[in-house]
Design goal:
Elements: H1 6-25, E1 36-38, H2 45-52, E2 60-69, E3 76-85, E4 90-96, E5 102-108, E6 113-118, H3 125-139, E7 145-152, E8 157-163, E9 166-172, E10 178-184, E11 187-195, E12 202-203, E13 211-216, E14 222-233
Parallel strand pairs: 12-14
Antiparallel strand pairs: 1-7, 2-3, 2-14, 3-4, 4-5, 5-6, 7-8, 8-9, 9-10, 10-11, 11-13, 13-14
Length: 235
């Protein structure tokens, strides 16, 4: 099994604490919240629907090839399986080695978190919390209030969700590509870029991105690249 391979195990031992640290202090970013020109209320419905439609609307399972890039380190590759239940706002995440060994398995809702399996060094609570917050940001529409929809100073359509110090911006581009930016006290902490919308993979989800890149900003920032392998509707 891959975990018996010392070089790979050493990579994991270094990877998970670094990810946990990144999640804790990622608010050190200097990128600022962009200005927004709101559209008139009568002009916002179509844009707001487009913003909401980037998120999953039905129960779905997605399989991604994941590559993590830490500052100054080699890329590490695993497989991610995510079950998403939008109506209940429930997520289930499985991380596997390339050989198929389950390294981490958890289920998350707004009311609870269950860890079914976590092999050292994936036993960190900071790691599991950070991971589940990330996949929630990717797959579920924001749980905060939509306050503005309009256009940025460079002409990009935008929907802005806010709650106290948290801001989530959804930016919509040509060809269906989009970006989600999350801010804390007006400083960028996370960004998700979606591309390859018409990827030729096995997918029952209309126009779901073939590639997602999640970036944590700040001094200890890192990136997670997600390439879609399969996507299907579930019960």
């Amino acid at each position: 099994m891959i975990l018996l391979n010392p070089p790979f195990f050493n990579i994991l031992k270094n990877l998970v604490p670094c990810l946990a640290l990144c999640w804790l202090i990622s608010a050190c970013s200097t990128s600022q919240l962009p200005e927004l020109r709101p559209y008139p209320p009568e002009s916002t419905i179509e844009l707001e629907n487009r913003c909401q439609n980037i998120f999953l609307q039905e129960n779905s399972q997605l399989v991604h090839a994941l590559e993590v890039q830490l500052p100054g380190k080699n890329r590490s590759s695993v497989i991610g399986i995510t079950n998403v239940y939008p109506g209940e706002r429930i997520l289930e995440s499985v991380i596997m080695s390339i050989e198929g060994l389950v390294l981490f398995h958890a289920r998350y809702s707004e009311a609870s978190k269950e860890i079914f399996k976590s092999i050292d060094p994936f036993t960190s609570e900071q790691f599991s919390d950070g991971l589940l917050q990330d996949i929630q940001l990717i797959f579920l529409k924001p749980g905060v209030n939509l306050v503005h929809s309009g256009v940025t100073m460079d002409g990009t359509d935008i929907c802005r969700y806010t709650n106290k110090n948290e801001v989530v911006d959804i930016l919509l581009f040509a060809k269906g590509n989009w970006v989600i930016n999350q801010y804390d006290r007006k400083k960028l902490i996370k960004s998700i870029q979606a591309s390859d919308i018409n990827a030729k993979v096995k997918s029952a989800l209309n126009r779901y991105p073939g590639k997602l890149v999640l970036t944590h900003t700040g001094v200890f920032g890192y990136s997670l690249e997600m390439k879609l392998i399969r996507a299907e509707l579930t019960k």
